[in-house]
Amino acid sequence: MEAGTPIWCYEASGDDPWILSEIVDRTSDSVSLKHVAGDSADVVFSRPLISSGEQGAKYEGVELANAPLSESDIAEGVDNDMISLQHLHEPAILHAVSDRYFRGEIYTWT
User: Dihedrals φ, ψ of 19, to 5°?
Assistant: First the structure.
């Protein structure tokens, strides 16, 4: 995870538990983040390292975000099957279903 990488950050308070954020900086024991939008967009905060291994570092309440789909990907129905998402975890699924809901296409193959 490098600076500028989009991620989902878990927030226990508020209406949305997962907030789209980006990495500002990374050290050996934590990662600094900032929210992409909203009232706290300019506030930098950090999350501690939980574990590190072959599959990379894992930080508390942080999950990688999927790249946004292009209009042509949406038209082709790339997001019809959620198994095809690059990152398949709670915030990715919630975001994909939310996007589909607002487009009037709530049902998926999986």
Answer: -110, 130
Q: What is the DSSP string of 3-19?
A: TT-EEEEE-SSSS-SEE
Place of tokens 């129905």: 77
- Calpha distance 4→21 (Å, rounded): 9
Consecutive H or E run containing 74: helix 71-76
CA 9 to chain centroid, in Å, comes to 7
The string of pLDDT tens digits covering residues 64-92 is: 998 888 888 888 877 778 888 888 899 99
d(CA 6, CA 63): 9
What value, to the nearest 5°, has the Cα angle with vertex 25 and ends 8 and 52? 70
User: What pLDDT is stored for residue 20 in this prediction?
Assistant: 92
Who's near 25: CB < 8 A, 6+ residues apart? 3, 31, 32
pLDDT for residue 84: 81
Whether 29 and 86 have beta carbons less than 8 Å apart is answered as no
